[in-house]
Amino acid sequence: AGHGGAAGHGACAEGAGPPAPERVLFPPTFSVSEIKNKQRRHFMFLRWKQQQRKEKLAAKKKRRKEREALGDKAPPKAIPKTIENQRVYDETTVDPNDEEVAFDEATDEFAPYFNRQTVPKILITTSDRPRGRTVRFCEQLATVIPNSHVYYRRGLALKRIIPQCIARDFTDLIVINEDRKIPNGLVLSHLPDGPTAHFRMSSVRLRKEIKRKGKEPTEHVPEVILNNFTTRLGHSVGRMFASLFPHDPQFIGRQVATFHNQRDYIFFRFHRYIFKSEKKVGIQELGPRFTLKLRSLQKGTFDSKFGEYEWIHKRREMDTSRRKFHL
């Protein structure tokens, strides 16, 4: 029996056909998530990601070589698809040459500021008993917005503050709300007749928390940049922000306040230009920085009970598509 087994083994070795194919680690339909062992699963996922990166890089090199070989005949580069450029069309998108829009802007509540008939005067206040971080944020915001004054609430209701602001010729009221010692909301009310916008605030960074920040801002009136406020609602919000600043920026100060709208999040940054040469320009962030998300726009001044709302953000009804934006 032993001899037969050996002969059989030898015959198998001598008359062996093609070598057995290498064993495939995973069948094509196998998913890494099916691996039960957590460490093994993590290891295999990292290997898969590494392989994906290599393939992507190889494809990129191949495309670049093909473009170099074709030279001027190379086809134009494909524009990558993003959420922004796949945006669902909004029928309220503003055409700059629209006569109706031009008439509305010439007669709305902010027209005197753009015609330089009124100088902005801003009152910045807080919720009751603000903590240190909110107080410091208000003080730094006052250095960004010219002709702004910080006062503390001391238990006064907003309905009582607004008439006092109007009597003292304030043109706008900014209220910074906080939750658990962190600023989390901003109410911007245009005086004397509104409108009032309520924003959720997040990602607040004070000056000392910003890396590679510049020196303290000077008292020069900054330039204001408004990006991507394209709809009628976005236009109204953009004009509200613009009317906080005098309309004669002092370019010698090289300071710029930017409100950048992206996917209905408004990112605020405050920078200073650094001219390295005649052609090269760098920027230096001065701070503070924060992000706003519009929650409501109300006609008139602040009135939580009987106020008439022009627009309210209703998440379940409005956020049905990731490519639908309102500003």
From TrEMBL:
<dbReference type="InterPro" id="IPR044281">
    <property type="entry name" value="IMP4/RPF1"/>
</dbReference>
<comment type="function">
    <text>May be required for ribosome biogenesis.</text>
</comment>
<keyword id="KW-0690">Ribosome biogenesis</keyword>
<feature type="domain" description="Brix">
    <location>
        <begin position="120"/>
        <end position="303"/>
    </location>
</feature>
<dbReference type="GO" id="GO:0042134">
    <property type="term" value="F:rRNA primary transcript binding"/>
</dbReference>
<dbReference type="GO" id="GO:0000460">
    <property type="term" value="P:maturation of 5.8S rRNA"/>
</dbReference>
<feature type="region of interest" description="Disordered">
    <location>
        <begin position="1"/>
        <end position="21"/>
    </location>
</feature>
<dbReference type="InterPro" id="IPR007109">
    <property type="entry name" value="Brix"/>
</dbReference>
<dbReference type="GO" id="GO:0030687">
    <property type="term" value="C:preribosome, large subunit precursor"/>
</dbReference>
<feature type="region of interest" description="Disordered">
    <location>
        <begin position="51"/>
        <end position="81"/>
    </location>
</feature>
<dbReference type="Pfam" id="PF04427">
    <property type="entry name" value="Brix"/>
</dbReference>
<feature type="compositionally biased region" description="Basic and acidic residues">
    <location>
        <begin position="66"/>
        <end position="75"/>
    </location>
</feature>
<dbReference type="GO" id="GO:0005730">
    <property type="term" value="C:nucleolus"/>
</dbReference>
<dbReference type="GO" id="GO:0000470">
    <property type="term" value="P:maturation of LSU-rRNA"/>
</dbReference>
<protein>
    <recommendedName>
        <fullName>Ribosome production factor 1</fullName>
    </recommendedName>
</protein>
<keyword id="KW-0698">rRNA processing</keyword>
